[in-house]
From TrEMBL:
Protein name: Ommochrome-binding protein
Sorted UniProt keywords: Signal
High-level lineage: Eukaryota, Metazoa, Ecdysozoa, Arthropoda, Hexapoda
Position of the signal peptide: 1-27
Matching InterPro entries: WD40/YVTN_repeat-like_dom_sf
Length: 303
């Protein structure tokens, strides 16, 4: 079991790691008269307001604010069946106590998720739409219809990260080694059995992307041959879009993973970004230190 002091230490460490740091979004200006938005990875995105920076021709776009005045929204994930966004945030201004919450992206209805101690990590099985939440005393399965959370594993353990694709992947604090849980049984994930993991995803080609304090890496699932993408980045989140393409959320913005060049390409600049997800229309949803924002696709433009 984790002692109260150990739990507090874990929360302090989380605060230090995620607090390494008004959202400003920069992208290429579209010159056509009928196209005043931004293009990201070949997709046209709608703007709501625009401000011309004095002295040059770059436009800044303020997009749909889904929630504000919330402290460090983190580890965002969307259930595509309900378009509910699940995330954690800090609930004490002068202390580090986290809580998981949900935000309906259609109605903007917000609810805290009760029954999880220091809810921090969350993930969704998109096939069954089951929600898993990691707290300071184990892994919970959350029933959205009943609004109840049930402890299902790792009782008394501090859960650091959660990810679901075919099976549930998770790591424990402070060791941060990755495990898989299948049919109620847990074992070390052999592909990364000797590697500490902060963030972890698997893309549509079964390429694993993971980060730790040394960098952002990728390797083909079923192998142990890792390739470095970025050395020691201030990385806050990894996510895949609806098509399984990998993205990284760094402190200074959102990046698309460029596998052909083993690099990252900045697609949205954000001041002090914290989290990233994609809604069920594949809109970008991201957070900064105090807000959750959606960058909406403009479906009627062909720029």
């Amino acid at each position: 079991m984790i002692s109260r002091n150990a739990g507090q230490t874990r929360l302090k460490m989380k605060f230090i790691i995620i607090l390494c740091g008004l959202v400003s979004i920069q992208a290429g200006v579209i010159k056509e008269d009928n196209c005043s938005g931004v293009i990201i990875e070949g997709v046209y995105y709608e703007k709501e307001n625009e401000t011309l920076r004095e002295g040059n021709d770059r436009l800044y776009y303020a997009n749909e604010t889904l929630r504000e005045d919330i402290d460090r929204p983190y580890l965002l994930v969307v259930d595509n069946s309900t378009n509910n966004l699940y995330f954690s945030y800090n609930i004490k201004e002068n202390d580090d106590e986290f809580k998981s919450a949900r935000l309906n992206l259609n109605t903007k209805e917000f609810n805290n998720i009760e029954g999880v101690t220091n809810g921090f990590a969350q993930t969704v099985d998109q096939a069954t739409h089951e929600i898993y939440i990691g707290g300071s005393d184990g892994i919970y399965k959350y029933d959205y219809g009943q609004n109840k959370a049930e402890l299902i594993g790792e009782r008394g353990s501090n859960i650091w990260t959660l990810y679901f694709k075919d099976v549930l992947y998770y790591s424990l604090f402070p060791h941060q080694f990755l495990y898989v849980m299948e049919d109620g049984q847990s074992k070390r994930f052999v592909d990364l059995e000797d590697t500490k993991v902060d963030h972890f995803i698997i893309d549509n080609e079964d390429d694993i992307f993971f980060s730790n304090y040394t960098g952002l890496f990728s390797q083909k699932k079923g192998t142990k041959n890792a390739v470095l993408y970025a050395e020691s980045p201030v990385l806050r989140s990894l996510a895949t879009d609806k098509f399984g393409n990998a993205y990284a959320c760094l402190q200074d913005g959102i990046y698309a993973v460029e596998k052909t060049t083993t690099s990252l390409k900045k697609v949205v600049e954000v001041n002090d970004a914290f989290g990233l997800a994609f809604d069920n229309d594949n809109n970008i949803v991201y957070s900064d230190a105090s807000r959750i924002i959606r960058l909406k696709i403009y479906k009627d433009k062909t720029c």
